[in-house]
Specification:
Strand content: 15-25%
Largest sheet: 2 strands, antiparallel
Shape: globular
CATH topology: Arc Repressor Mutant, subunit A
Strand order of the largest sheet: 1-2
Order of helices and strands: HEEH
CATH class: Mainly Alpha
Number of strands: 2
Amino acid sequence: IEEMYEPFLIQQGFLNRTPRGRVVTPLAYEHFGIKTNKNNQQTSLF
C-alpha cells in the first residue's frame, strides 16, 4: 500500500509526510465533505 497509494495521495495533495508520520491535508477533508476545525487546534478528548 505504501509504495502504490501513498505517492499518489502525496502528489494529489491529500497527504503530507511529516516527522510525526502521515497527515491528512485540508484538501482531503474538503474532497470527502468532512468539516474540519478551521483554527487547526486539537479538540479536547473529554
